[in-house]
Design a protein that fits this description.
This is Carboxymuconolactone decarboxylase family protein. The chain is mainly α and 125 residues long. The chain has 7 helices and no strands. The chain has 2 domains: 50 residues, no CATH class; 72 residues, AhpD-like, CATH 1.20.1290.
Length: 125
C-alpha cells in the first residue's frame, strides 16, 4: 500500500525536526486541523520528499527565506534546529543569516541571528 502524502510528510518532518511535527498537529487541532494537515502534506510530503536537493541544502534555503521574511521567528527557530539536525554547522548557519543582511537588510539579519542565539541556548539547556 502506498503511503499517503500526510504519512510521507510526517515521516520526513519527524526525521528532520523530531517532535516538532507532532507539536504542530496538536497545536492546531482545536482551531484548524486542516491547516495542520496541509502543513505536513505539502511542504514535507511533496516538496521535502523530492530528490532535487539534499536535506541540508533545503534547510539552508529555508533558513535564508525565513530570515529574509523577517517576521517568522517561530518557524525560523524550527528550521534553525532542523538545519543543525541535518548537518549544518553553526558557522554555516551564521553565514547564511549574515548573507541575508545584504539582500533582506540588517533588521532581518539581526532578528535571524537573535533567533539563532535563542536556538543555541535552548539546545544547550
Amino acid at each position: 500500500m502506498e503511503k499517503s502524502r500526510f504519512d510521507t510528510g510526517l515521516e520526513r518532518l519527524t526525521s528532520i525536526d523530531g517532535e516538532a511535527g507532532q507539536k504542530v498537529i496538536e497545536s492546531l487541532q482545536d482551531i484548524c486541523p486542516d491547516l495542520a494537515k496541509y502543513t505536513i502534506e505539502f511542504p514535507f510530503g511533496d516538496i521535502y520528499a523530492r530528490t532535487g536537493l539534499d536535506l541540508k541544502s533545503r534547510e539552508i534555503a529555508t533558513v535564508a527565506a525565513l530570515t529574509a521574511l523577517g517576521n517568522c521567528a517561530p518557524q525560523l527557530k524550527v528550521h534553525l534546529n532542523a538545519a543543525l539536525n541535518v548537518g549544518c554547522s553553526e558557522s554555516e548557519i551564521k553565514e547564511v543569516i549574515l548573507q541575508m543582511a545584504v539582500y533582506a537588510g540588517f533588521p532581518a539579519a539581526l532578528n535571524g541571528m537573535f533567533a539563532f542565539k535563542d536556538v543555541l541556548l535552548e539546545r544547550k539547556s
